[in-house]
Amino acid sequence: MQFPQTPQHAQLPLFEAFMAQPLAPLLKEVVEAPWSSEPEVFSEASLRGAAGSCLSLLAPILRELSQDQEARWLTLIAPPSSLTQAWLRDAGLNRERILLLQPSSAQSALQLTCEALRLGRSHTVVSWLNPLNANARQQLISAARQGDAQSLNIRLG
């Protein structure tokens, strides 16, 4: 069976508009854009669904962090009530490397998280702050940089 031959240049008009645009200014912007050499110190994960399902998704992340060979702690600030010592054990986390901290009436979860980050005794401080506005996020970033730590915020929805 033979198909009718169409000239190869029939499809070129689709690309001509794109190719007509000068690429030099775009490439110049990409090449000259400064690359940040600072490591990211703040991360956020948003999990939605049943509490058990969210914890199942979170377990491998926390397990990996709890098995970090660094001499500092993995600190969990105000975790949900379903995150119990039994859950930590069943999820295979190294409970000898984990601190669980609850805020007091004199100190909010954000303040406690910032303090734990600033002190630098934890390689990662995991918080459950929701909502987290831009000012609070900046406080966490600043505290994490000061303590040479990582901040991970978990939003459960």
Automatic annotation (TrEMBL):
Q: Which Gene3D superfamilies match?
A: P-loop containing nucleotide triphosphate hydrolases
Q: InterPro entries, per this entry?
A: Cell_div_suppressor_SulA, P-loop_NTPase
Is Cell cycle one of the keywords? yes
Q: Membrane-crossing residues?
A: none
**What does the record list as GO biological process?**
cell division; negative regulation of cell division; SOS response
Q: Name one Pfam family in it.
A: SulA
Task: Please report the name of this protein according to its UniProt entry.
Answer: Cell division inhibitor-related protein
Query: Which controlled-vocabulary keywords does the entry list?
Result: Cell cycle, Cell division
